[in-house]
Queue: 2 jobs
Job 1
Amino acid sequence: MKQIAIGIDLGGTQVRAALVDEQGNILARAEDRTDAAAGPERVLSQIHGLAEGLLAASPTVSVVGVGVSAPGPIDTVAGVASDVPTLAGFAGFPLKAKLQARFPFPVSLENDGIAAAIGEWRFGAGRALDNLVYLTVSTGIGGGIVADGRVLRGRKGMAGHIGHMSVMPDGALCPCGNRGCFEACGSGTAFTLRARMRAIECGETVLGRDGATIDSQHVFAAARQGDRVANQLVDEEAEILGRGIMSLVHIFSPDIVVMGGGLSNEFDRLHPGIEAYIARWAMPAFRDVKIVRAAMGQNSGLAGAAALVFLAEKSPRDYSRQPRKT
Amino acid sequence: MKQIAIGIDLGGTQVRAALVDEQGNILARAEDRTDAAAGPERVLSQIHGLAEGLLAASPTVSVVGVGVSAPGPIDTVAGVASDVPTLAGFAGFPLKAKLQARFPFPVSLENDGIAAAIGEWRFGAGRALDNLVYLTVSTGIGGGIVADGRVLRGRKGMAGHIGHMSVMPDGALCPCGNRGCFEACGSGTAFTLRARMRAIECGETVLGRDGATIDSQHVFAAARQGDRVANQLVDEEAEILGRGIMSLVHIFSPDIVVMGGGLSNEFDRLHPGIEAYIARWAMPAFRDVKIVRAAMGQNSGLAGAAALVFLAEKSPRDYSRQPRKT
């Protein structure tokens, strides 16, 4: 029987489940809209239901364990969700124990940015590298780090909250309550907000013409059609991302920076601006870092959560100490 | 015979040497003004001369090795100084090989921020902790990180250049060439510059009265005497440091943040402002991090450089993988 892990990617909008083998191949996949307002027991039922459905359709697999990626900050040492703004009732919730109670397999729990970093490191754009910074640019900005061949976890396993690096004193308001966080300035949400404001301020753009809605895809589409304001907005976004990434490059000295999340769908348009910022402003010794798009797309977190299971099985006392190369 | 390491702390202003035992005790110490303009061979002679002098006066010790802390960024994997602005002729200089040629003992080389972090971790304020961010606030801002019980090195061993995290777009000019780096806004140099400008702008301060020079000590002294402008300057500095430290706390999730460098002489005055920033603006799960003053003072780097030697001896292939607790 094929040995597989169940990977779960719990987000504020979608909850995804997959059966994943040790090589990161996704054998089966299911998803549901997260019932975010209904409280943790309902969300746990969704997770369990998705996993059960996948297993029922794949009777010939042997399950090694369940790996769960969840929005942070989660204390993964205690297994407790401290404060998840996008999910009602998850403050101080003993998520790992509650998950374990639903499954007859060992459960591993990881902050979502770290899980996605593991996915890209084991199976995606960062394979065979020892130093990787992963960032996801989407509704918010999150991340995870691999340094010196090991996953960086920090106290309570909460390292990698790079979206709450301050990039501008008294800048845009962040969902965390502070102002000027990388997330508040550089996320897809921030980009869309800037586009909507700019469309009101500047007449000379197709954005928002005749009351049309403006989302990030519209800005990139208008930019491709030569709209000057749209191109300016995209160039500004690339500069904000480039500046944040440069900070992370000085802090971690990675081999590679991997960008995922919704805005990475437009990576080809953003990449030259990001790279130009690094080439001009990073210290010379750091300028040759590679900035690449996530190779696993939406599946980085799912595959990373599953990878946790295989790593934990090999070295149960401390899976982070497992040598990376298999 | 007592086993000791020779610790060397090479800086742009001072070069220091010490004989250090495995418990971090400094048995003998010597220093010299760095002949920074005279080129690397002269600086190497200074280092060698200091070490020889210490050994001549301590004939009963057995030397395990030489550990050298030097200003970065240094590629400690290749042993090459890439670009040291404060030392003439150190660009692309094979520092480790040149040091090794002068000593009959094994030489270890480390970026200065990392060496000081190791000193505080093994012997100072971070003993018995697995997650530590060290920052030095002095002429510039540097740092080093211990995460999950191991020294964070990154590609080429260049991690920890936290002074070049961008904290303000188009902010103050940084020696690195960029604008708005943490160092450009928060270092002792930046603090002094702000004080001099403020003294010119505001009449109502004792700072600079009758053409007096203004250095950081003068500002703290005036603040203690109740000078309003001086107190404002100090509060601003604490806020800049608090904001930068908050970013690092979100990024690394440390147990403790250790502040060294010249401005840490005024740690008691700065600490309430730093802590107030963290308490108000860090995400709740991170607010209980401790911010403390470096326990080894000027000796963090010297002791950390020496600690490298003992770590390297125990696990020569990869001293970073040595278990921390001895």
Job 2
Amino acid sequence: SSRRLKLRISYERLARLHPADIADILEELSRDEQRSLIEALDHETAAQIISEIPTSMQAQLLESIPVEKAADIVDEMPPDEAADVLQELPPETSAKLLADMEKEDAQEVKELLGFEEDTAGALMTTHYIALDGSATVENVIEAMKQFEGPIESIHSVYLVDAEEHLVGAVPLARILLAPANTPLQALSVEEVRSVQTDTDAKTVIDLFRKYNLLALPVVDDKNHLVGLVTADDVLDLVVRRR
Amino acid sequence: SSRRLKLRISYERLARLHPADIADILEELSRDEQRSLIEALDHETAAQIISEIPTSMQAQLLESIPVEKAADIVDEMPPDEAADVLQELPPETSAKLLADMEKEDAQEVKELLGFEEDTAGALMTTHYIALDGSATVENVIEAMKQFEGPIESIHSVYLVDAEEHLVGAVPLARILLAPANTPLQALSVEEVRSVQTDTDAKTVIDLFRKYNLLALPVVDDKNHLVGLVTADDVLDLVVRRR
């Protein structure tokens, strides 16, 4: 049928499209076609694409494929996205997926599931780079090479002390201009703004607007760095609330 | 009076505050106090603070101080902010200010004034870094040192050909990881998304959401790079529209 043909053409071109564009195509397919498309992709690509569709559709799709495959995909999703979809799934499915995920990823996601909706904790991602203040430009490069997400999403590096307390932040632009052996604490911004995990979404939005932020570190009640709220998620939140 | 005393204390602490926080204080002062505070600050600091208050208050304040001082301050404002406030002022005042500004800055602002409200052209800033694709990491560092705005606001460098056509974009993270002599075109993202100056604000917002953008280049009808819409301005726009 012409429908099949369309899908076959898409396969060949998919690799060249942005995940958000593939997600647009995915949304127009039938349930069966969606499932075969997702099952045909590698986990990482599938995770990128699923991250771009509405949470309710994510849940339907993940429920329709074998749990091992679904767990592999959720493993590769940004932890905040993974937590959102697990919250949407029936508790048994959610538990099965968590049991099948990599231990460390499952742990990260479980912690995110503990935060109340519309708080900084529920909004944040746990993918960020935190280093000791004595770390140098070279250490940043090393950390970026080991970063789990796309390196293009890194715009600042956060500084923590030996107990993981947030003590500073360094924009990449400053790192690029500094000699390779400069300790990061010498490059830190004058004042790092942060919020606690239970800070409400409205306060987060207000801070982003007031200080023109691209990212806002999130700390627990002992000022340990635990996450990062990013501008793209804040924009989504504001648009959804309109 | 206690009011005067409060203002005097503020002066001493002002330098340590974020411009957005000084702007909050400014908004609570009387007109006279606002004027003397702004006149006491250097142009650059005054411009940073004025950029953080509502446009109508910016206009009132700039009308209340000598035109030469006002022109010096508008000179230091981001071009898109400067255009917004000039649009709010009576045409004669606006014309006087433009006549008193540095020629190059006035020219930039005049071009921005030509764009219809709620289009990419009216939303964009003209502060960005554009280089030839054969430029290297070292050339980026040089350009950043000469950048007019705060370097922390740079997250990507744009690539243009000899006729200023937009041909690529390189996130700072990629530049940081690349050897110093790498030509930028080897680091460019696969596909640069851009909009034309007359693209409506809704489309701009949709693109930011769909592709999780932090910045979106703006081109004229011949694909010449002419500006950049940034995520903070898009967030402001969405909040204002609610």
